Structure formats: C-alpha cells, structure tokens
Amino acid sequence: MRKYPKKRMRRKKMTNVFYMELNDLNYELERSAEILRVLAHPFRLQIVHQLLEKNALNVTELQKILKLPQSTVSQHLHKMRNHKVLSHERKGTEVFYRVDDKQVKQTVHILMG
Q1: Taking a C-beta distance cutoff of 8 angstroms, is the pair 84, 101 a contact?
Q2: How far apart are alpha carbons 32 and 105 in whole angstroms?
Q3: Per-residue pLDDT for 111 more than 80?
Q4: So what's the pLDDT on residue 25?
Q5: Three-class SS of the chain
Q6: pTM over 0.85
Q7: Sorted alphabetically, which SMART domains does this protein's record hold (predicted)?
Q8: Which of 21, 38, 57, 68 could form a disulfide with 61 if both were Cys (CB 3.0 to 4.6 A apart)?
Q9: May I ask the CATH class of domain 4-112?
Q10: CA–CA distance from 26 to each of 36, 45, 81 (Å)?
C-alpha cells in the first residue's frame, strides 16, 4: 500500500526547487533591469565605457576625458556607486572607480556592441 504523505513531500521538494530557481531568475532579471535603468543616461554609459577601457579612473581623469564639469561627473559616479554598478577604492585623497560586476560588464558590452 502506498503512503501518500511521502509522495506529497517529494512533490513539495520539487516545487521548492522550482520556486528557488524562479526566485534566482527573478533576482537576475531585477538586477538587469536596475543596471539598465542606471545606465540609461548617455554620460553614465560614457563613464562606464571609459572605466572598462582604462580599468580604473578618478573623477579628475574622467572629467578631462569626457570634457564634463567635475560636479556632473561626481553626481553620475555617485548614482552608479549607490546602485553597485561601480566599485571604488580610496588611495590617499583620491577615489578610483572601476567596473567589477560581471553582469554590468556583460550588459555594457551588449549595449555598446
């Protein structure tokens, strides 16, 4: 005679795995959407593109390359840093920014062609 509770438990485990996979997928999709929202400004795309080419730059270096006011560059860096699109490292009085997130790199490469 079959015991139904065991069968139910198996189904529940499979369902939990399915929901875990959906949760992982939802997280990835939400993160991708967040990255796209943050990068939806031409200046931010330019900043990230330069950081990917040169690995790490500070505000002054980015300002010279992009020919933008320092305050504009700083505001965009701050927004991207808050959304974890960029990482930063302080060396003395300077802060160097770079793109470490694999998903951000992939997204930018797709967008920039």
Answers
A1: yes
A2: 11
A3: yes
A4: 81
A5: CCCHHHHHHHHHHHHHHHHHHHHHHHHHHHHHHHHHHHCCCHHHHHHHHHHHHHCCEEHHHHHHHHCCCHHHHHHHHHHHHHCCCCEEEEECCEEEEECCCHHHHHHHHHHHC
A6: no
A7: HTH_ARSR (SM00418)
A8: 57
A9: mainly alpha
A10: 15, 25, 22
